[in-house]
Amino acid sequence: MALLKSDIDFMSARKRRITGTISAVMLVVAILSLAINRFEFGLDFTSGTLIEVGYPQSINPEDVRQQLISAGFEDAVVVAFGSDRDLLVRLPVEESADDLAAASAASSLGNEVLAALQEASDVPVEMRRSEYVGPKVGEELAEQGALALLVALGIVMLYVAVRFQYKFAVASVAALAHDVIVVLGIISLFHLTFDLTVLAALLAVIGYSLNDTIVVFDRARENFRTMRSTDSEFILNTTLNQVISRTFVTSLTTLLALFAMLVMGGESIRGFAVSLIVGVSVGTYTSLHISCNFLMYLKIDKEDLAVPIKEGEEVDSLP
Amino acid sequence: MLNKFPLWKNILVATVVALGLIYASPNLFPDDPALQISHENREVTDIDLGMATDALRAAGIEYFGDELTDLGGLIRFYSLDDQLRAKSTIEQNLEGDYIVALNLAPTTPGFLQAVGAGKMNLGLDLQGGVHFLMEVDMETAQRRRMENTMNSIRQELRNERIRSRNLSLENINLIEARFEDEESRSQARTLIRENFADLQVIAREQGGDYLLEMSLTAEDLDQMRQDTVTANQTSIRNRVDSLGVAEPVVQQQGPNRIVVELPGVQDTAQAKRILQRIATLQFHLEAEPGAPTTSYETYEYQGQRVNVDNTVILQGDRISNVRSALDQYGQPQVVINLDAQGGQQFNRVTRENIGNLMDILLIETRTRTVFEEDADGNVVERQETYEERRLISHAVIRAALGREFVITGLSQQEANDLSLLIRSGALAAPMYFIEERTVGPSLGAENIEQGSRAVMLGYLLVLSFMLYYYRLFGLAANIALVINVVLLVSIMSIISATLTLPGIFGIVLTIGMAVDANVLIFTRIREEIVSGLSPQNAISAGFDRAFSTIVDANLTTFLVAMVLFSVGTGPVKGFAVTLMVGIMTSMFSAIMVTRFIVNLMYGGRKVDKLSIGPFIKAAEAQG
Questions:
Q1: What letter does residue B28 receive in the DSSP assignment?
Q2: All domains of chain B, ordered by start, with CATH?
Q3: What three-state secondary structure class fits B438?
């Protein structure tokens, strides 16, 4: 079985240059896309009104938009959603909706839109989903989301620093940041809607990618302690060859499950599934090529992982 | 090395799996759509139920399993459509104060119910319904309270003839009083200390004026905010009950928000109308015997008829605080505080009416469905709002009452209920909708279908791959994977977690990740064999050495899931919950259950070769 043939050279200077370049290109593309395209933020963050309606037969979004304009909803954006019989209507939050009372009144917009559509249509229009997010809530969700990402990265760094060593902590967080930026870049590049579920997917990517990296580091730690060689490059390369089979198998099973989600899950879960698929793929690459590179940059060596001498007694004996 | 579990480990695995099966099984019994019929002020009887079923038969709606339960009459239906049609049929035919609520009746067999096994809750995105997030307008509530306090202080100062130059509300938690000389200030200070114990008073001088700055302590502020939210929550709960919704959720979120979830509700406009209405209170005197019938209205109070005079002696908005407490003899009582103007007004009326009865009315605006014939003779539904007036207290005035008075002669429960009712009537602050999400029933059903198909396809793919790649060991991992989902579902059911669509995808994701532990172990076993260990030793070493890696990897993922749980709301929280539970169950199943099965396969005998997939070539390659 080829996957177990463990003589791949991951760590030579040439290989590291290549993977370093690939990552640099990915990061640059991602950051450029983030700067130019930015995100198409979902309702959770932009605030406003969204209503998904179903028609018994196929319907042209443009016709529906005209209906809405004549009903007085000039700002309405109408797009097809999933099938040609389902439409999404979006309305931005009004400027005046700063105070609670106005924001509260705006929450009935969804009902008004539905009424207008039912009025204008000869066939029954079904309300499938209607959402209103007030301006305050949108802002908070965005803040909380950003905070969650940072907190997650911070906690991970702390845990790895305690369980392993600070160089590992820095390397794993760098690897995670790398993954998160690439996934964000892809979301922005392909104009996927960035909403709460995508944020959840992003955190799951952190969890997954970390899982991979930890497995590598765990083995690296073991090897640094047990192998006779003092050549960090050799030790890390051996480690990667030992874990590569596991990394591929796990990524494959996870991707299989995610693929099932993408195929069967329907339109509303697409962004979630795509973010995870990208994240898991990039995470696999990162754990094999990037995280150990970082360790090398940080000049990891045997000393760093020598079994620590218990200092507890000394500290205790101090007055 | 024989690879046998000690007896206790075998028993542990068997017990956990058995418990998992028992507690997961209720999810196999789908609920019946049902209607629950109750009555505003009496028990529902067989006769009521008979009237309802007669109406259903007349309308040709199929039903079954009609019975009387603790909560009233229950009638089950074969479809959601029938349930909805039946609701309006019964509402049309049963006259009077009946409440017909949509419900889902469990079909779990009795022995499962007896051990407390229940189902996972379905999130709104799976069963349809509406989710509201409401914010209590705390600023208004606080300002109102401080204004009342300021007016009371002004009144007291005037009564005591203490001259003040100016009294103003500087901000929502700062009342400033200016005095010309130090003496008036110190008199005022004493007065305030005596009468407004909850105010913090600071004295200072400014531009020749003597100032008193009064504010609430942080603790009192928190208490006031919490009281206000609780009051609003109580009144929302009362009103939600009138909507006839099965299993509504009314929960506080954060310091000043309330989440309301109404499964099955589609008409959000009506729901909002009802939720936003604030109840009010009125104080009346008992009508004198022989008074003209036009001057009073008759109410029922604890089984007796009470004639309440029409004149309002005090409006509920004069109430500044309500609490239930114990008096000096340990008897429950309700303590009501009024603002200054209310106190004066109340004092005057009660002084003249010692020995008479005083009544408190709670007035709520509610909505009901009425059926009427339109011009073409069709029966149409119409929503009609009406005022419901309820007598909540009927007590003798024993002395002239002032700014603080008590209602006694109640049981502890009654005192609590009454103070809650008065609170919800008098203390509730305005509330606003800041988030609203509605999912139609068809989308909910679609989500369930798509979710379960994704789970099944995901399973099929992962199971086939594992079987192909790891042969017999793959089979062991697959059995563990199936047990993993049983355990996951059972734990979700036991903690009554809510399953949402992202939650289902969390399950899909854990399928992919759950095999990771087994992959780690199996890869390690292969490695150990390659490095020359005997099969039995390799199994043992593989499980042992992979263990710390598995724990590290899962713990970190668990930490991330916890972050997700703490910041997420609704569906995202559901995802985090399944992820966390999934990590725990997958560790158990991948380590303990797989080992158990592998031991069954290979333990305790001599083994030459392990069926763990084609790796010999690799061994050669390395050798």
A1: G
A2: 7-26+441-622 (1.20.1640.10), 32-105 (3.30.70.260), 139-221 (3.30.70), 222-438 (3.30.1360.200)
A3: strand
Using the beta-carbon criterion (under 8 Å), do A249 and B519 form an inter-chain contact?
A: yes
With beta carbons less than 8 A apart as the criterion, state whether B443 and B124 touch.
no
Mean pLDDT, residues B538-567: 87
Q: What is the pLDDT of residues A97-143, one digit of tens each?
A: 456 666 677 777 888 888 888 888 888 888 888 888 888 888 888 88
Mean pLDDT value across residues B237-263: 82
Fill in the amino acid letter for B569.
Answer: T
pLDDT at B326 over 60: yes
Q: For residue A192, which of A270, A277, A276 has the smallest C-alpha distance? A: A270
Question: Using CB atoms within 10 A of its CB, is residue A285 exposed (0-12), middle (13-18) or buried (19+)?
Answer: buried
B98 φ, ψ (degrees, to nearest 5): -90, 150
- What ipTM, to 2 d.p.? 0.85
Q: Is the model's pTM score more than 0.90?
A: no
Average pLDDT of the residues of chain A: 83
Hey, are the CB atoms on B548 and A127 less than 8 Å from each other? no
Q: One-letter amino acid identity for B622?
A: Q
Q: Which of B512, B576, B579 sits opposite A253 (nearest CB)?
A: B512
Domain spanning A48-133 has what CATH number? 3.30.70.3400
* Phi, psi (deg, nearest 5) at residue A46: -85, -20
Give the class (CATH, top level) of A2-41+138-305: mainly alpha
Touching A: B residues 402-441, CB under 8 Å: 432-440
Distance CA A51, CA A108 (A): 11
Tokens of A273: 């599934």
CA distance B45 to B47: 5
Can you spell out the DSSP letters for B373-407?
E-TTS-EEEEEEEEEEEEEEEEEE--S---SEEEE
- For chain A, say whether B364 makes contact (Cβ under 8 Å): no
Structure tokens at B349: 């009326």
Contact status of B201 with chain A (Cβ, < 8 Å): no
- The Cα–Cα gap between A176 and A202 comes to 10
Domain edges within chain A: 2-41+138-305, 48-133
CA distance, residue B618 to nearest chain A CA (Å): 5
Three-class SS of chain A: CHHHCCCCCCCCHHHHHHHHHHHHHHHHHHHHHHHHCCCEECHHHHCEEEEEEECCCCCCHHHHHHHHHHCCCCCCEEEEECEEEEEEEEECCCCCCCCHHHHHHHCCHHHHHHHHHHHHCCCCCEEEEEEEECHHHHHHHHHHHHHHHHHHHHHHHHHHHHHCCHHHHHHHHHHHHHHHHHHHHHHHHCCCEECHHHHHHHHHHHHHHHHHHHHHHHHHHHHHHHCCCCCHHHHHHHHHHHHHHHHHHHHHHHHHHHHHHHHHCCHHHHHHHHHHHHHHHHHHHHHHHHHHHHHHHCCCCHHHHCCCCCCHHHHHHCC
Q: How far is B238 from chain A (nearest CA, A)?
A: 21
Token pair of A35, please?
Answer: 């700067």
Instruction: Place B487 in a pLDDT band, splitting at 50, 70 and 90.
Output: very high
Over the stretch B222-231, which tens digit does the pLDDT of each residue have?
888 888 888 8
Which of B447, B515, B560 minimises the CB distance to A152? B560
Q: B-chain residues within 8 Å CB-CB of A259?
A: 461
Residues of A in contact with B502 (CB under 8 A): 197, 200, 269, 272
Cβ-Cβ contacts under 8 Å between A and B: the total is 239
